[in-house]
Amino acid sequence: MEFVDIHGHYAWGIDDGIRDLDEARAALQNASKVGVRVIAATPHVISGTHFEKDIQHFKERINELKKEASQVGIEVHEGSELFLNHDAPTSIRSGYFIPYENTKYALCEFDVRRNLPDDEDEVEEYLYSFKSHGYTPVVAHVERYFKKGIDIDRVSEWVDMGYFIQVNASSLIGTHGSTVLKNAEALIENNLAMLVASDTHKSEGRRSPATLVDAYAFISKKYGEDTAHILMHDNPLHILHNEPIVRTQVKKVGFFKKLFGR
Ligand SMILES: [Fe+2]
């Protein structure tokens, strides 16, 4: 399997991801080993904290990463993961984020440490800021924002607005607990998940590129290989090519089929 992994903190020394050049080399090597052929480097950009100069610095580091990655046959696209807070509309308006290179798609996230606020002013308004400036938000690890179970109707509304939904490989292998795992499954089962990525922070372990292999096996077994391929190869590549994505067509397994395994 050739993976296209468009959420990862490979650009070293600028956030809580890969620490230094040595670890970046190890992460790239491990990624290459498990079949990753294309990645996007998406360092955390914090609204209200990072400005023009920081963005330039991040881009320079991503350029250094490109040279390193080419040595192990991995193509790197630039990007960022914009943290959405009350400064997000200003950051988006001012261009203090890095969309996926040469595209109108941009990765963004909410605070994973707390439950997603019910207030539309703190969530939907920020997502809409992207749309009003001509960008499609790719919402990172949606399964992690709902501590008491996923709100499918709310996520469906985001999808109706044209936003993209990303799920973490780590969530599918249980790294963030059973609720997050169930949330991730529900997103796939409702055909709302559009891509799965590693969100790599480390060169090894449960936040590394290796999680892609286990997530691929999990999705293939439960939802079919076609689904795994769309989520981990086709759609991420469509995004990097600034193309529309395709929706999965997972069929819900009925109660009796589940019970009797047929
Ligand atoms: Fe991330």
From TrEMBL:
Q: Which UniProt keywords apply?
A: Hydrolase, Protein phosphatase
Q: Which domain of life is it from?
A: Bacteria
Q: Which GO terms describe its molecular function?
A: manganese ion binding; protein tyrosine phosphatase activity
Q: Which reaction does it catalyse?
A: O-phospho-L-tyrosyl-[protein] + H2O = L-tyrosyl-[protein] + phosphate
> Which SUPFAM superfamilies does the UniProt entry name for this protein?
PHP domain-like
In short, the EC number is 3.1.3.48
Q: Which Pfam families match?
A: CpsB_CapC (PF19567)
InterPro entries (UniProt xref): Caps_polysacc_synth_CpsB/CapC, Pol/histidinol_Pase-like
What does the sequence similarity comment in the record state about its family?
Answer: Belongs to the metallo-dependent hydrolases superfamily. CpsB/CapC family.
Could you identify this protein by its name? Answer: protein-tyrosine-phosphatase
Q: Which species?
A: Sharpea porci
